[in-house]
Amino acid sequence: MTETILRPSPISASVDFSAEGVQHGFLRLPYSRDDSAWGSVMIPITVVRNGDGPTALLTGGNHGDEYEGPIALFDLARTLAAEEVTGRVIIVPAMNYPAFAAGTRVSPIDKGNMNRSFPGRPDGTVTQKIADYFQRELLPLAEIVLDFHSGGKTLDFLPFCAAHILPDKEQEARAFELVKAFGAPWSMKMLEIDAVGMYDTAAEEMGKVFITTELGGGGTATARSAGIAKRGVRNVLRAAGILKGAVETSKTEWLDMPDGDCFSFAEDGGLIEPLVDLGEKVRKGDVVAQIYPIARTGAEPLEIKAKMDGLLAARHFPGLVKQGDCVAVLAI
Ligand code: CA
Question: What's the CA-to-centroid distance between 5 and ligand 1, angstroms?
Answer without folding.
Answer: 32
